[in-house]
Design a protein that fits this description.
It comes from Streptomyces phaeoluteigriseus. With 279 residues, this protein is an alpha+beta fold. The chain has eight helices and nine strands. A hairpin with a 7-residue loop joins strand 8 and strand 9. It is elongated and about 60 Å long.
């Protein structure tokens, strides 16, 4: 963390107005920060604790942005669940649970605390170092690619209904994507090579486990699971009972569907077995 822990914690704890909170755990972390849990922790200068952190984002009495990392993950999980249900919840972490108080916000926050100055970075001298900033998502790159995969996982039904299964090429290995959403032949041809590379790297994950959080499994309707895998330059989102979607750094804005074929079901099952799951 920037500066001394005592100084930063004291500054952030002085009338911190909590705006939002997120989990930073192996099974659930802001993917915009990295392809895996250790990478996301490193973006904040935090050690990748096995149980993870809760990140509390707020403003101090002067309106400065602060991110407080606490080790009471369950407290933050309860707060998030309450807010998601439209319930009020006073998130007030105990000082003993504070691991680090970091200047700035690593994520974009659209709200602000009433009665204080507009959100701004703390004074660098008082903060003890540079402030955290959200990754640049204005242009296509790793951060935007991961956000795109997040959106597909969240809105699976919407994306799935755009795909006509009859458009899939009859590939024997399940690695042929359908036409891209833009329907461009040249892009589809380039995407096929990229998809083959991604599937090869995903198969390697089954043999040699990647860094923690590279493969995650979460709830899906019925008996299915939603799988998320990331790697250098790519993201994959899939349902264990359905198809997969691939996004590539090298293919800006393209979403490449992958048909099940004879191989994909087994690959997804193997990934689900080794994936990290929410506790």
């Amino acid at each position: 963390m920037a500066g001394t822990e005592e100084d930063a914690v004291a500054a952030a704890d002085d009338a911190l107005y909590v705006l939002t909170a997120v989990l930073l755990t192996p099974a659930k972390f802001p993917s915009v920060l990295g392809d895996d849990y250790p990478e996301a922790c490193a973006a904040l200068g935090l050690a990748p604790l096995a149980d993870g952190y809760g990140l509390v984002l707020g403003q101090d009495g002067e309106g400065a942005r602060w991110t407080v990392a606490i080790d009471d993950v369950s407290l933050v999980a309860v707060a998030i669940a309450s807010w998601d249900c439209g319930m009020e919840y006073d998130l007030s972490p105990d000082e003993r649970t504070v691991v680090a108080a970091l200047p700035g916000w690593p994520l974009a926050v659209a709200v602000a605390a009433p009665g204080v100055r507009a959100p701004h970075d703390p004074d660098p001298e008082a903060a003890g170092g540079p402030a955290l900033r959200p990754p640049d998502t204005t242009t296509w790159g790793p951060a935007q690619r991961r956000l795109g995969a997040d959106e597909i996982a969240l809105q699976w039904a919407l994306w799935r209904e755009q795909i006509d299964d009859t458009e899939f090429a009859p590939a024997g290995d399940g690695s042929e994507p359908a036409e891209t959403t833009r329907g461009e032949k040249d892009t589809a041809a380039a995407g096929r090579g990229g998809v083959r590379r991604v599937l090869a790297e995903v198969r390697a994950y089954v043999e040699t486990p990647p860094p923690l959080g590279r493969v995650r499994s979460s709830f899906a309707p019925g008996d299915a699971r939603t799988l998320r895998a990331d790697g250098p330059g790519w993201s994959l989102v899939a349902r264990t009972d359905d198809i997969a979607f691939v996004l590539l750094d090298d293919e800006p804005g393209e979403v490449l569907p992958v048909g099940r074929g004879p191989e994909l079901p087994g690959l997804l099952e193997a990934l689900d077995k080794m994936a990290v799951r929410p506790s």
